[in-house]
Amino acid sequence: MSFKYLVGGSVFLSLALTPGFAHSAPVKIGKYVIPGAFARSLEQGMTVPVFIRYQETDEKSQQKIADAVISLVDGNITVKSIMVSDLPNNAVLSDKTRGMVEKIADAKFVDNTAIALTSEARLQLNVSSFHLEMIVSRDALTEAVVARSTLLGPSSVDRLSNVLNYNFGTYYNDYQNGSSSRSYLTLDNTLSLREHHFNINGSVYGIGESNSSSKVYRAMYERDYEGYRLALGMLDTWNVQSIASLNALNGGKIYGASYGNKGSTVVENTALSLTPITVFLPAAGEVHVFRDGRLLSVQNFNMGSYEIDTSRFPYGVYDVTVDIVVNGRTVNTRVSRVNKIFARQQAAGLDQLSWQVFGGSLDYDRVSYKRNHYHNAGSEQTWIAGGAASLTLAILSGLNVKSTLYGFDSNAVNETDLTLNVNEYVSVGTQTLVANDGTWRNVSSVSLNAPGGFGSVWASREDSKIGDRLPVQERDNYSIGGTINLGRFIPHGGSLTVSQTENRYSGNKYRNLDYSTTLYAGRYATVGLRAGVQRYYYNNRNDDGRQERYVSLDFSLPLASWLSVGASRDRYGATQGNISARKQFEDGPITSAGIAASTRLSGEQNYGNDYSVNGNMSYATKYNAGTVSVTRSADNATNLNFSSQGSVAWAGGDFGLSKERQRSGIIVKTGLAGDGKLAAKINNRHYVLSGKSSFIALPPYAQYKLEIMNDRNSEDSFDIVSGRKQSLNLYPGNVGVVAPEVKSMVTVFGRVRYPNGQLAANTDIHNHIGKTRTDAKGEFAIDIDKTFPVITLVSANGNICEADLDLEKARGAAWVGDVQCALQSTMAQR
Hints:
Immunoglobulin-like; 4 helices
């Protein structure tokens, strides 16, 4: 359509009705006549979208790539500036092309239709429709490749904050000849300022008893930022181990420091293929990926160069066929290699070295575990120093090499770990320890998974020799086993697992055979069968072993219920019947409850009773979670256990409690009253918000995208005025505080009357956020902010009448019945 026929368009109409434009003269640009009103607006500058199109296609593009500000200067259409839009799932301009595009300033269209940007890109304007396109060659684009690693940015919490995790437990045992009780409290406190934090961990045992004790396990300063981790203070051997393996130490404490480039702020994306598989589409279309002739994936893209999403592809190294389909026609086909190795665990990335150094003072127990010569020489204070390195190589499906060299006292130790993933089916690994006192240890393992899910086989072997000084225990054992998926051969075949473990050091041997299958799966129930045999051989004795057997039927029922009945035969020849049931609850503080009971059916009675019973319950509230269990055993003993956990957080003057145990979190200040509830979506997980504020405990070293929204399970309706979406980077001890502006809304229905009782028919009603009008019967409907529950009537003669509504208990919508207003001489100010 010619531009001169667009005079009736909405843009022109709005401008034509504007004073100053209504009588503007038309302007001629080339062969087109621009309405005067539109030309005047164009002279002032107008923002229009820029669509991208491949040069070898003629179809009009609707794929936006940028926004351009254009204007009319001396009769020429000019581009004042262009801002590239970084849209998801869109084409990406090369650095050269993008640089030229963003440098454009006051560039005139040649013949009012074209501007050459580079040799690979140009702008083209269709004046008749004002459709602006960027026409590019393939060289003007670059691949939209997903980063293989991400670096966590600076902390979003600028002030001092603290998170305290606690875990309390107590038990009581009542025997025939006495009773006993014990309790403990474990505390883990993290105080932080931005990326810096100080952590202290300890426990108190025997609370309230004369022989109570306490112990501090860790008190350290830590800063893990931009890929480098520094830890110093009183560390346990576990907290030293960013990379290092310290298996020659039997616990102990290290008063020192550790530094390296293996931390938690760099996250390696191991779900993607090591080598990106990129494709170019000349227009919007599909990419079909085949493996061995079978369709593996179908993905949709716009015009441009993109990386295929391989996150859902199977692990391993294999070839795939990639077909590019545009408008139902295959325009290109090629073979690419997927390389998803299993060993990509280090943050430094593939073929990059992760390293760590550490040192300080070591407090450890000098113990000798030689056979028949156990000796404890007590605790000793000495020095420790060492370093570790780790490297992942793209050999087969990934080779990970890790080595630690360290010394303490008069000992020098090297530990080396190798893990090789041959392909998606075979994996082998070995761990070796060698020391200068003659100690050595080796643990080797191999696992094989049959293609097609038919089963798997695994084996491991551990052997060692104790030297003169290291406090390590001798090991000589092996384990071998396999699982076969019978369901691949016959319906409801289930799976069969066979394994054997032998400890040659102690002379014990264990053989296990376990079978499980699903007998029935329907709408109202799922029925499963489990059966097994275990045989035990002790101390190399020449007997046929002691055997235990079991069989049970498991029922999964609607409403999150589970029931199991079965029988077992112990090593002494006694047969017992067993029954257990469990129920999950979605609403209320109790999350699950269960009971299990067993009774002797045959065999010798070794205890005072023929039965035993156990009951347990789990609970979770907004502020705390825990479990309670009671057991009555066959020997007439009663056991009671209780455990409770949660966290306490503060940031400035804000305080919060949570049932979760995490080292960072977010306090959301909603100011809700009564039973009102909101929801917070954090990284696609939903949390319920209630009360004045809610503390959501979250794992540290992560970026969280927060969105406040209405809870779909609540009757309440809220208007989130501001602060709906936020993004926060949290480090250990960080407590972010967000305070969205929230209005509690109620849709009010009713009938309004004047003070004399007359219906206020066809009368305007106002409040501070909106207005409505009554009908002939005086009935109305209006949205009201519960904070300001006042409506104002304005009669035809200008009289003002107000009514204060009682909406304290209203939720969502409310019928208020007849409302009588009171005359006011002036509008009430609230």
